Amino acid sequence: MAFERWLPTLALLTAAGCYTSVNADEAGGTAGETVGDGGDADTSDGDGDGDGDGDAAELPSPSPRYYRLTHEQWENTVQDLFELSAPTGHSELFRADPQVAGFIFDNDATSLEIDEALWTGYRIAAGLVAEQVTDDPDLLAKLMPPEGPSEAERIETFVRSFGAKAYRRPLDDQEVATLTELFVAAPPYYSGVSDSFVAGVRHVIEATLQSPFFLYRIERSETIVDELVPLDDYEVAARLSYFLWNTMPDAELFDAAAASQLHTAAAVEAQAQRMIADPRAGDMVVRFHQQLLEAEKFETISPSPNFFPDAPADLGELAAQEHEHFIRDIVYGGGGGLAELLTSSETFVNDDLADIYGVPGVNGDEFTFVELDPSQRKGVFTQVGFLAANSTSVDPDPIHRGVFLAKRMSCLQIAAPPDGIPPLPPLEPDQTNRERVAAHTSADQCATCHATLINPYGFPFESYDAIGAWRTIDNGQPVDTTASPFVGEQAVAVAGALELVEAMAASEAIHECYTMHWAEYAAGRNAVPDDWVMIQRLGEASLAQQQSIQELLVALTTAPAFLNRAAEELP
Amino acid sequence: MNKINKRPKHSGKFGRRTFLAGAGGVAVGLPFLEGLVPREARAGSDLVDPFAIFFRQANGVAAQQSTALGDEPERFWPTTHGPLTPETVAGRAIEELSDHLDRLLVVSNVNANYFDYADGHANGALQGLTAQGPVVPGQGGDSEANGESLDHRIGRELNPDGRDSLFLYSGKNSGWLGGPCVSYRGPGNRRAALHNPLLAYQTMMGLDSNQLEELIARQTSVNDMVRDQLQSLVSSPKLSSNDHQRLQLHLDSIRDLENNLTCSFGVDELAVLEGLSPGYDSDIGDEVLTAAMAHMHVAALAVACGYTRSVCLQIGSGNDGSTRYRNLDDNSLMENYHYVSHRRASHDNSGDVIANADLLHSMVDRQFAQTFKYLLDLLEAYELPDAARLIDCGVCLWYNDNGNGPAHTSRNLPTVMAGGANGFLKQGLYMELNNGDDTVNHARLLNTIGSAAGLRDANDEFISDFGDPNFDRTPLLELLA
Fold first, then answer.
1. 3-state secondary structure B405-439
2. Would you say which domain of life the source belongs to (chain B) (predicted)?
3. How confident is the model at residue B75 (pLDDT cuts 50, 70, 90)?
4. If you measure CA to CA, which chain A residue comes closest to B181?
C-alpha cells in the first residue's frame, strides 16, 4: 500500500468512508499512529537533520537485501559490462514482470522474482551474450588479460577483473577458484571454439551472467555502527549507479569504491553531481516521470472524429513526444525543479500540437521549442497529454483528472469507488459538463470524496476540452473553473487551473509528495512512516530553496537512508 | 530545441534464431503422440496423468437479462438442463462447440462471493481461480488476491519437482488490474505470465542449441555454481521472509537440461507456432485469439509430455478493456470489449449507447467458443498409443469471471468443462447447481476441478481445502461420473 500524507483537517472524511489511512501495522508503524504525525513541521520532535541534537532521527527503514535487476537494468548492465555499442535486445527473451498493485514504478524489489521462465531466458541470453562477445575480436580484446608469465596467472587476472565488474565487487578467493574451475573445464563444451583460452572466457561469461551476484544487486553489510548498518563502498556505488543511471557502476565509481572514497556524504555528493550530468541520468529522469505521470496512458487518447475532426490520428504519440521533450528540458535544459514542472509555459510542439495550443508559425513534424500563452498554459498538467488522456472521446473528465492530481501529486488517499455506479447521464440543454458531474456526484455516498477531494482538483481544468484545447464555453455556457481543492492541509480557493498549479508549486505538501515518489523509486519499495523525516526535510528544501530536480536527487543520495541500511531487518 | 540523448535502441526482433535454433531438429508429427510421450510414461490408460487447462474470458456473457436499456434474449446458455444436444445449443454461443457436445459438462448457477474488492472485475478476475477475497479490502483496481490460484496449486503439488505451471496471457500487457492477473503463488503474490507464445515454448523446451550434449554438460557446471551460491545466500540468517521466498523460488527454478527433443515441435509445428504467435500483444481480437491458439499448441504439448499438470490461459486484462473483437456480420471491429459489455462507449457507463451491444457481446462469446474449440480439437488430435485421446485425460475449463454484461455479476458464472479427466467428471450434460438458488459454491467447483486434476489431501481423498475457509469447499459430487 502506498504511503499517503495524513491531513488532520480531513479527518472527518475518514469516518465517512472516503479517506483512509495507512494500515499502521503493515506500514511498520505503531497501531493507531497516523502516518504524518511525525512529519508535521509544527509537531515533530525535531528538524530531522540527524545531527544528534535530540531531533527526530533520520534513519533508514528496513529494506530488502536482494534487488533483482529490472529487464531494462539487465540490458543496460550487459551493454556497459562489455562496452557494447547498443543493448543486446536479449531481454526480449524474458517474460514480463507482473504489474503488482500499489507501486508506481517498475523496480519494486519485493516483487521482482526469478521463476523458471525467467531463469530460462537468463540462461539463453547468457549464452548468446557470451557467444557474441567472444566471437567479436574487438569486444574480446577488451576482456583479454595481457600476456603473462603463465596461463594460470592470465586466467586469474581475467577472472578477478571480469568477475569484479560482473559482481560489482571484488571476488573472494573461493569465487575465483570456482570461476577458474569453470574456465579450465571449458574447451570440451565449445567444440567450435579453437582457442582454449577463448573457450574459458566464454564459459566464465556464460556462468557469471547467470549468477545471483550478477542478477541481483545485493547488500550484504551487517555490521551495526551507531544503530545503523553502513553500506560498504561497493554497495554505495551500486545504489548510486542503479538509481541515477539504471545500470552498473562505471570505472570511476569502481575506483572510488576500491579507494574507500564513498564513505562520506561529501564524496557521494561529488559522484552524484558527476553522474547526474551524464545522459544516462536523463534517461532515468524521463522514465521516472513517464511512470509517475502515467504517460503510457497517452496511447489511449482517442478523440471522437465526429466532435474533433481535425485532431491528428496520432495525437497520443505526439503527446508522448512532447512530454519527453518537456521533462528533459525542465531537468536539463533549464535546471528546473518541481515548480517549473508544474508552472513552466515552455514546451515543444510540432504543427499539429501547435494548432491545438493556438501557437502560430510552427510548420512540419519536427518538434520546436515554443512558449505557450501563460494566461492559458502552465506546466505539465495543462499540456495535451494529461488533459486528453483524462478525457472521454468527447468531454473532459474532471473526475479522473481530479483523482490523479489528488492521489498522485497531493498524496491524498481516496478509497476506490463502490460497484454499480450509475452512468453519467447525457448533457441536458444548456448544462455544462461540470454541472452534470457535480449533480451526478452529489449523492451522499459520492459527495464524501467527490465534493471535497476529487472534483475540486478536476473542475479547474474544465477550461481544456477533450483534446486539451483551451475553451471558455461549454455547451453554450461559460465554463466555471473555480474550486477549493485541498493543497496541503488547507483548502485553497482557485480561479482555475493556472492558480491551482501555482498553489501546488508553492505547497510544501506537494513538494513532499513529489519527494516521496523519488524516495520510493530510489529505494525500490513503497515509503513507510519511518521515511517521513527524510521526505519532509528534502521536501521542505525543495520548496524553500527552490531546488532543481537535479539538486533534489543529489540531496537524496547523501541522506543517511541512502548510505546506510537499517539495523533492523525486514520481518 | 534540445537534443534527446538516448541509448540506441536495439533493433532486435525476437527471432527464432534467438532461442530455438536447432530445437526442432526432431520432427514430431501431429496428431500421433508416440513421439511425444515422455520417456517415463507408463503403459495402458495411465499414459498421461490428468491435467487441467483453464481458459479465462472477462466481462460476462450475453445471457438473458433486463437492463436499463431494455430486455436482452438468452444467447449463451443451452435451452434446457439435461443432455446436451444440437437442439439445446442451437442459437446459443455454445453451439460453436457442437463437435464436442459429448465431452462437455456445462454448469449453471456457479456463484462466487461478493468480497470487498470494490470492483466487479477485481472480484471476478482475482477470485476466479483463487476463491479468495482481497489482501486489502476496498482497493478496486489496486487489489490483489489473498491466496494461491488453483492452476499454481496443481503445478506446485503435482508437477515434476514442483515446477511452475504454465501461465499464459494474450492481449495488451497492461490495462485494468495490470493485465495478467488471475494466477497467484500465494496471498498478494501475483505470478508473471508468459506473453509471447514462443517464449512459452522456449520455457518448456529449455533448449537453444544444436550442440545439445555440449550445452547440457556446460549448463550442468554452471548450475552447480549457481545452486551453491544460492544455497549460501538462502541460508543467511539475515534474510527477510520476502528475500528468502524470492531466492528460494530462484533456486527451485533452476532446471537441469535434458535432451527432451522427443517432446518438441518439429519444423512444421514450429512454423505453425510462429505463424500464430505475433498478435499476443495486440488489441485486435482476431490477433489476440490467434495468439491464444498458439498458446494452446504449447499447452497441449506441455500436458502431453508431462511438463505440467495445469495451464492457465488468460485472455485480456482484468476487464479486457482494449481488445476490439470482430463483428461476425460484417467483419468490422467492434468497440473494445469492455465498452460492449457495458453497452456504452465508455469504461464507466457514461458513454453513448452502442447499438445492438448485446448481440455484439454474443459474437465475442462465440469467438471465445471457437477458440476454446480450437483447444479441444488440438487435444483430441493427440492420439495416445493405446488409441485414447489426450482430451479425455484431463479437463479444460472455459470460464468467465463475471456472469453478465453491464452488471458484471459474480453469480451464475459461465462454466464450460470439456474432457472427463480420465473418467472423473460427467460429460455431455448441462447441469444446474443448488437448484438455482443463491448459494455461494464457487470454491466447491474449484475443489472439484483440482481433484479431477489429481490433487488429493493427506488421506488421499479429494481436496476440500482450497479457497476461503469461510465457504463450503467440499467437491461437487453431483459433477462426478
1. CCCCCCCCCCEEEECCCCCCECCCEEEEHHHHCCC
2. Bacteria
3. very high
4. A98
Interatomic CA distance for residues A387 and A395, integer angstroms: 10
pLDDT tens readout for residues A238-282: 999 999 999 999 999 999 999 999 989 999 999 999 999 999 999
Place of cell 474550486: A483
d(CA A481, CA A382): 13
Across the interface, which of B120, B192, B230 has its CB nearest the CB of A115? B192
Largest CA distance in chain B: 74
CB contact at 8 A, A379 and A343: yes
Question: CATH class for domain B49-205+280-479?
Answer: alpha beta
Q: How far is CA A223 from CA A28, A144, B230, in A?
A: 22, 37, 22
**Domain residues of chain B, as ranges?**
49-205+280-479
Q: How far apart are CA B249 and CA B257, in angstroms?
A: 18
Report the C-alpha gap between A120 and A391 in whole angstroms.
Answer: 42
Verify whether the Cβ–Cβ distance A178 to B228 is below 8 Å: yes
pTM of the predicted model, to two decimals? 0.86
Specify the DSSP element, H or E, that contains A273.
helix A265-276
Q: Are B470 and B416 in contact (CB under 8 A)?
A: no
Is it the case that residue B47 has pLDDT exceeding 80?
no
Q: Does A114 contact B250 at a Cβ distance shorter than 8 Å?
A: yes
Give the Cα separation of B448 and B395 in Å (integer): 11
Burial environment of residue B184 by CB neighbours within 10 A (0 to 12, 13 to 18, 19 or more): buried
Mean confidence (pLDDT) of chain A: 89
Residue B32 bridge partners (DSSP): B383
Interface of A with B in 183-202 (CB under 8 A): 185-186, 188-192
3-state secondary structure of B180: coil
3-state helix, strand, coil in chain B (%, to 5): 40, 15, 50
The amino acid present at A551, given as its one-letter code, is: E
Lookup: cell for B439 = 448459494
Contact A191/B7, CB-based, under 8 Å? no
Give the residues across from B105 on adjacent strands: B417, B429
Q: Average of pLDDT values for B306-318?
A: 96
Contacts of A377 (CB under 8 A, 6+ apart): A345, A347, A357, A383, A470
Cα separation, B130 vs B128, whole angstroms: 6
Whether residue B180 lies within 8 A of chain A, CB to CB, comes out as yes
